[in-house]
């Protein structure tokens, strides 16, 4: 356990003053007020109206209040804060379940919509509570014995019956990865079980058995990680999967043979708070991440660029950490003197990044800076962790901020990981920068994938035909390229369709910020976006790198579905994203492109002459989305139906300056 106990007064009286002041102010603001109470009817709402967030937010508020009190108790040994810790710990011990509503399997096993206390479920939430109580016991142990004798015995009893015993006796947990599908629940839960084992299990034989099972589980996750370190659901889920894996190995005195995983966050960094996002990950993750952990791990693996990226987030004079990411991370940061002393520099911002396993390419104008345009484009398949149907989608950022975007995901509900996932507009290809072909959008499933993927110099070429559940799409070649000499991004789509229906074929562009549209042209976020058809015999229609060798060619992704898969409430969550089946027509569901009923929150504008461009405005009232993008996103639907079954459209993106 890297955190010293409160008996080490040299460590706990030297904590960062700014952090201590901020924690004290927030803790005193709630001291003496009723504790957040997760209510039974809010738990049951998951089965009534799909809401899981209300219950989970109450749980997280309880975690954060307890974390503040624990840190202040360790620093001050003040009975006021020891009492606050006691109240919070006992409230968790008396909570009917530590599981989050969408995870507890009591409904499937017992037909109940409320927790079944005799059959505890080990999920992400249970692991988090177990680890919090373990940290409390470890840091405050002797002081709790003197202040509230009996509390530590209660903690051990509850962690044992709710987590440690079910972990060892039930070996059918889906997150163990025994079925070959390994996702981020695996290291997230295993790392928390490890913390509880090290802090609370005194019997040597039982401790060794638990560590053996934990190690086996972590090994399954490590084996599934691709060699290039890519995380198919993005950097937000890196924190809740791969990072937990690396930390668990560190606690066990081991390291990974795939150190590239440490580099993943900085390799997908666009600039400032923005990151390349795919699947359920947000483009602007919370700033309150445990950067001190990445800093420590980067030094452990000797990755100077990852270390610099972490250090870039240290703000001298400001708190070293926040209680939001969890009690353990707060305690680690408060006692990490190296992190407190870090002086920030710039993030490395690599010039070129290519992940073969997920077929994600990132190219920027020059290394070390976010000025100008950055292109991120993916191939992949539609059975990735926390999957969105987004094969061939791309992002264009200006000065590090995305303008042509991937929206991310809304607040999690029962629908998110159920059979109707792909009725949620953010999950569908119609709200990614992809085509809809003859009225049909992409389908979910491993078979719906990019083919003939070739990574070139700041370019990616692929065939999107197989991503669509149609047999008349003979080919749809997309070439996305950053031309550094001209500071221009081009995306060229060339298609060949067999004779078939005349339903609309549309190329979608999802745009952040204010948008103005005229014939063949749009302006947004300091960018000018133009589009025009290209004649088949035009030399410009030849894809860049067309004469390059096949060294970087892939027939399909090699490991994109093998990475981690999840976090919880409004901060992250559930494992199996792909519950949908079959093709979806673009005009079937609520995220209608051209015809059909109008969904609330969606406004459609007129089209411009030439190739028709319809403007679709999506009003954002979900804070998970609006906190990133503001009050709306705009989609441009460029109708290329008139170009016929064989055609080419070139999209060009330049800065206005």
Description:
It comes from Actinoplanes campanulatus. Pfam families: Hepar_II_III_C. This is Heparinase. It is found in: Cell envelope. It is a single chain. The protein has 657 residues and is α+β, with helices and mostly antiparallel strands. 32% of the residues lie in helices and 20% in strands. It is built from 18 helices and 25 strands. The strands form 6 sheets. The chain has a 9-stranded antiparallel β-sheet with strand order 17-18-19-25-15-14-13-12-20, with no helix packed on it. A 5-stranded antiparallel β-sheet has the order 3-4-5-7-8, with no helix packed on it. Strands 9-16-24-23-22 form a 5-stranded antiparallel β-sheet, with no helix packed on it. Strand 14 and strand 15 form a beta hairpin. The radius of gyration is 26 Å and the shape is globular.
Task: Record the SSE blueprint.
Elements: H1 9-12, H2 17-30, H3 40-48, H4 53-76, H5 79-94, H6 106-110, H7 124-147, H8 151-169, H9 185-200, H10 204-224, H11 235-239, H12 242-251, H13 260-267, E1 269-271, E2 274-275, H14 291-301, H15 304-311, H16 327-334, H17 337-340, E3 352-355, E4 360-364, E5 373-378, E6 381-382, E7 394-398, E8 401-404, E9 435-436, E10 440-441, E11 445-449, E12 451-456, E13 459-463, E14 473-483, E15 488-497, E16 506-512, E17 515-518, E18 521-524, E19 527-533, E20 553-554, E21 584-585, E22 602-607, E23 613-619, H18 623-629, E24 632-639, E25 646-655
Antiparallel strand pairs: 1-2, 3-4, 4-5, 5-7, 6-11, 7-8, 9-16, 10-21, 12-13, 12-20, 13-14, 14-15, 15-25, 16-24, 17-18, 18-19, 19-25, 22-23, 23-24
């Amino acid at each position: 356990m890297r955190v010293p106990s409160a008996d080490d007064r040299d460590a706990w009286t030297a904590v960062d003053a700014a952090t201590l002041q901020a924690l004290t102010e927030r803790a005193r603001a709630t001291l003496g007020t009723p504790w957040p109470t997760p209510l039974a009817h809010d738990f049951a709402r998951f089965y009534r109206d799909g809401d899981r967030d209300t219950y989970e937010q109450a749980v997280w508020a309880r975690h954060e209040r307890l974390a503040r009190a624990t840190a202040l108790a360790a620093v001050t040994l003040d009975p006021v804060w020891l009492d606050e810790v006691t109240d919070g710990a006992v409230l968790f011990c008396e909570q009917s379940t530590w599981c989050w509503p969408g995870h507890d399997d009591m409904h499937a096993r017992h037909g109940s919509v409320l927790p079944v206390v005799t059959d505890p479920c080990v999920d992400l939430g249970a692991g988090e509570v177990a680890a919090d109580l373990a940290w409390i016991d470890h840091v405050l142990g002797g002081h709790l014995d003197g202040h509230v004798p009996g509390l530590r015995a209660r903690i051990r009893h509850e962690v044992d019956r709710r987590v440690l015993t079910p972990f060892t006796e039930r070996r059918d947990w889906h997150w163990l990865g025994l079925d070959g599908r390994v996702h981020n629940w695996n290291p997230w839960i295993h790392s928390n079980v490890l913390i509880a084992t090290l802090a609370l299990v005194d019997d040597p034989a039982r401790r060794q058995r638990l560590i053996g099972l934990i190690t086996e589980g972590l090994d399954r996750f490590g084996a599934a990680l691709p060699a290039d370190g890519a995380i198919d659901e993005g950097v937000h889920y890196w924190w809740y999967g791969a990072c937990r894996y690396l930390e668990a190995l560190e606690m066990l005195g081991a390291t990974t043979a795939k150190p590239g995983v440490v580099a993943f966050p900085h390799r997908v960094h666009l600039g400032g708070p923005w990151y390349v996002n795919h699947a359920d990950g947000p483009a602007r993750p919370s700033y309150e991440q445990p950067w001190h952990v990445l800093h420590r791990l980067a030094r452990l693996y000797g990755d100077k660029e990852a270390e610099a990226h972490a250090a870039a987030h240290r703000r001298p004079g400001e708190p070293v950490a926040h209680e939001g990411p969890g009690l353990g991370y707060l305690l680690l940061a408060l006692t990490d003197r190296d992190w407190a002393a870090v002086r920030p520099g710039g993030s490395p911002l690599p010039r070129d990044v290519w992940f073969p396993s997920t077929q994600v390419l990132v190219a920027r104008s020059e290394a070390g800076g976010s000025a100008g345009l950055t292109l991120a484009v993916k191939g992949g398949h539609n059975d990735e962790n926390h999957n969105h149907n987004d094969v061939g989608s791309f992002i264009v950022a200006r000065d590090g901020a995305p303008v042509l975007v991937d929206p991310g995901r809304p607040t999690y509900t029962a629908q998110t990981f159920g059979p109707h996932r792909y009725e949620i507009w953010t999950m569908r290809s119609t709200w990614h920068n992809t085509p809809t072909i003859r009225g049909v959008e992409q389908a979910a499933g491993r078979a719906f994938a990019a083919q003939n993927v070739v990574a070139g110099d700041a370019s990616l070429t692929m065939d999107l035909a197989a991503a669509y559940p149609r047999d008349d799409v003979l080919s749809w070649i997309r070439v996305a390229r950053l031309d550094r000499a001209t500071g221009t991004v081009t995306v060229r789509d060339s298609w060949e369709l067999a004779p078939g229906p005349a339903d609309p074929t549309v190329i979608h562009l999802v745009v952040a910020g204010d948008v103005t549209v005229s014939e063949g042209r749009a302006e947004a976020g300091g960018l000018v976006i133009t589009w025009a058809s290209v004649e088949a015999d035009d030399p410009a229609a030849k894809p860049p790198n067309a004469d390059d060798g096949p060294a970087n060619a892939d027939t399909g992704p090699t490991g994109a579905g093998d990475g981690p898969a999840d976090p919880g409430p409004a901060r992250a969550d559930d494992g199996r994203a792909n519950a949908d089946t079959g093709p979806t027509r673009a005009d079937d569901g609520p995220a209608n492109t051209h015809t059909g009923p109008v969904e609330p929150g969606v406004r459609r504008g007129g089209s411009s002459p030439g190739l028709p461009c319809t403007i679709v405005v999506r009003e954002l009232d979900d804070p998970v989305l609006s906190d990133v993008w503001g009050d709306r996103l705009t989609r441009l639907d460029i109708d290329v139906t008139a170009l016929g079954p064989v055609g080419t459209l070139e999209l060009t993106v330049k800065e206005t300056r």
